[in-house]
Amino acid sequence: MENNYKMVAKTLYGFEPILAKELKNLGAIDVKEGVRNVSFIGDKGFMYKANLGLRTAIKILKPIQTFRIDSEEDLYKKIYAMDWPAYLENKGTLAIDATVHSSRFTHSKFIALKTKDAIVDLFRNTTGFRPSVDLDFPDLRINVHIEDTFCTISLDSSGQSLHKRGYKTATNIAPINEVLAAGMLLMSGWDGLSDFMDPMCGSGTILIEAAMIACNIPPNLNKKEFGFEKWKDWDVDLFEKIEASLLNKIRGFDHKIIGYDKAPSAIHKALDNIENANLTEFIQVEQQDFFQTEKNTEGHLHMVFNPPYGERLELLNLEEFYKDIGNTLKRNYPGTQAWFIVSNLEAIKNVGLRPSRKIKMFNGKLESRFLKYEIYEGTKKVHKMK
């Protein structure tokens, strides 16, 4: 227990409860939901496990210092006084990310610059050498979070955002973020116990995340590098042990995962990404126009998709498009639970079906709704009488 410490997992708006559940399932202690983040307690091995195994986390931060500040100069002095040689060499590289929610401090870039100056000056004044900035692959990525006058300095254990899983080399015009895709799937109750379909699959993100959930494959297995791999206390043996224990929990999958898209280019990209994720045996994709298809699987079908939006819809009649989605589901997909995300909130009215759930979320910066439609076998009335 003495090796445990507090960590913070950052996530997307509305995903805090799912991330908290994921953390508890992995074995985290003292899990507490915040706004776009969940805090928890664990040890170094658990930090490795969280980075490898969490589907809805964007970053895993390790707070190392908290203090109050009343000016930029105060911030500089307190950062300068910290023991940075414990974490970084004098000729190493660093990057600073700052988030600021404060009336006194308003410019996150200036806060990041002040923090960098303090660390660099400390090394230069004490050793004659200074670390340099590397925004892409630094030896140490530092996170500064200011809430009013309360400042938290954390080490970023993830490095590049955890939504960059490492399997995606090809994307479409507006690819869905992997963390958003995984969160939507978990929110929809997808558990791998039925057939699954994404009828507008684009470059295959939802299909890949669905297969990884179904088979309990750690989502960040293909990630090129984590931030903690450059830390001074990096323990490769412990990491490999954690990785092996997660790999041991992978399970088989007895159903179908199917993707359709009418664009040949999207199908090629999806096939490339599925191959990169080593999931070819679990996912089949076909060039099909969803509106010309019908359900061809037995039993319950679980459907999650991200219809085209924004610029991708300029050539389409929005009203007709969403009306066709509703009609195709109603007529051709009995026994289906269909979920999709919509950022044009007017468009929902054209679907012609009443959603049984509407969940607010953000697709990038676009406020969206994640909608659930139950398409029964026969009419709803008949279904209830059975």
TrEMBL record:
Keyword match RNA-binding: yes
Pfam families: RlmL_1st, THUMP, UPF0020
Domain THUMP span(s) in chain numbering: 46-157
Keywords: Methyltransferase, RNA-binding, Transferase
Record carries keyword Electron transport: no
InterPro entries xref list: DNA_methylase_N6_adenine_CS, RlmKL-like_Mtase, RlmKL-like_Mtase_CS, RlmL_1st, SAM-dependent_MTases_sf, THUMP_dom
Cross-referenced SUPFAM superfamilies: S-adenosyl-L-methionine-dependent methyltransferases
Descriptive protein name: THUMP domain-containing protein
Source organism: Mesonia ostreae
Classification lineage: Bacteria, Pseudomonadati, Bacteroidota, Flavobacteriia, Flavobacteriales
